[in-house]
Amino acid sequence: MSLAPSTRRASSATQHSDSAEQAIAKQPAEIVPPEHEKPQADEEMGGVGPRKMLREFGHGFFDPELAPLRKIYFKILGGTVFITIIVIWACLPVYWASLNWQPSSAHQMNALIVNRDQDTLGNTLEQTLLASRNNNPHLGWNSREPSTLSNDEIEHLLVHDEAAWVVVVAEEAATARLRSARENGDASWDPSSGVTIYYSQARNELATGNYVLPQSTGPTNAALAQVAAQLSQEYFSAHSGNATAMELLSRAPRTVAQPFVVRMVNFRPYNQAVAQAVTLVGLIYLLILAFIQTMAHTGARAMIGPKLRLRSYIVMRIVVPLIMYIPLSLIFAMISLPFHVKFDAHFDSYAAGFFCCWALFYVGMAALGLATEAMVTILTVRFMAFGLIALIIANVSVASVPTDLQVWFFKYAPAMVFYQVGRGVRTIIFDVKNELGESFGVCIAWIAFSCAISIPLFTWFVRRQEIREHEKSQQQQQQQQQQQQ
Q1: What pLDDT digit, counting tens, does each position of 242-286 carry?
Q2: In sequence order, what are the residues at sequence separation of 6 or more whose Cβ sits closer than 8 angstroms to the Cβ of residue 199?
Q3: What is the rounded CA–CA span in Å between residue 321 and residue 370?
Q4: Closest CA to 201 of 168, 158, 139, 138
């Protein structure tokens, strides 16, 4: 039985198709190199000429094929080193200068002499301390009338007014009482009853240890040695050959060997070693923590920022960081709790001092964090590290050294966040001069400036550039589409 013509034609076509597929299958498959082994255009490598094959994980650093990439690599690093050198010379000398002129500026530290003795001891002590102004370094010694400064007023002057760094007092009738003790053989004579040095160490422990005490006790001890020799010579000359006087003197040996020694009164001792973590070094950590949030926020807002209107974008840049700083500043304040920082030195309760300290850390972190938030807008992530160095140096240079030990350039100290937060913390944990209102006020002023001026202005400026670039990109795309049509 023969097949129909149409059936024979279909069978023939099917056999031809199968033979074609078998022929194709027998041909070797074309080898397509992986994406990372494809030759790169010379434009991507910065070179000119034919394409070159670059393999991932397959080259040595000095391979000729990597010459264009090495050039870009060294160009980036060389530029970074060059900018860093500029920043070093522009910023670091500021901190060096804040330390360099301390000895020659010590005369700006006010020191008082109160001569209540008005006799050999008091007069010699006053003359010696005033004469020490010819030395270098020296304190700014001045005399005060005894009637104008009682012991209670001395404490108020040193601690609450901070009108002086040290007060040296020659006690009333000290010379006369020594003569009487010798003549009467008083074995109970107290050598520390003649001269007292009052100071407040917690005002600034570095300045007190390096300048206030050495420049006070040194001349004072020299004066006491001179007075001891002078009064002893006077006594022996007046009672030469008097056996009774010599016997009485032997009963009071302390009136001869060392009749006067200095009594030290420290109204506010720096007796919390961990305090340095919250008055200076910890403030650097506070800035770093705020900076970390700024960098994280910069990366996160890049996804949503271009979709927002300008007003919403500015509000987001301000409000979100302020919320982020709340738990961070609380944790930062709580770190001091296990180390028993005395938050109740100034306030009546420990809780009040702690929460006040937390609030101070919060406004300080907000002031510093929003400042970096504004800076990163202009500097960009690429150069933000250099701006951070400048901000740290400007604050640290005036945080550890009192303005009385610095030259005129550093009078900007009260405007710095580190300076104000450090002083505020000292008030809370040491009960020194209360300037918490000023400390909070300066930090809030920084926050207000960032919220009202720097962040909105910088954001508007950058957004305007972004809009122009976006419009330019759209125009180019439209032109390309028209050319293709």
Answers
A1: 888 888 888 888 888 889 999 999 999 999 989 989 998 999 999
A2: 158, 165, 166, 167, 208, 212, 213, 216, 264, 265, 266, 267
A3: 8
A4: 158
The token pair at 452 is 């009202």
- Give the sign of the dihedral formed by CA 433, CA 439, CA 440, CA 445: positive
Classify 175 as helix, strand or coil: helix
Which residues are registered as beta bridge partners of 168?
Answer: 113, 197
- How much is the CA Rg of the chain, to the nearest whole Å? 39
Position 103, amino acid: P
8 A C-beta contact, residue 422 and residue 283: yes
Residue of 302, 335, 132, 290 lying closest to 220 (CA atoms): 132
User: How many H-runs (helices) and E-runs (strands) does the chain carry?
Assistant: 18, 5
Instruction: Quote the DSSP letter at residue 41.
Output: P
Look at phi and psi of residue 340 and say left if phi exceeds 0, alpha if psi is from -120 to 50, else beta.
left
The predicted-structure confidence for 375-403, as pLDDT tens digits, reads as follows: 999 999 999 999 999 999 999 999 989 99
pTM, two decimal places: 0.84
Q: Which residues of 68-86 are buried (b: 16+ CB within 10 A; e: fewer)?
A: bbeeeeeeeeeeeeeeeee
Residue in the structure block whose two tokens are 């006067």: 260
Pick from 358, 368, 356, 372: which is nearest to 286 by CA? 368
139, two tokens: 């304190």
What does DSSP assign to residue 2? P
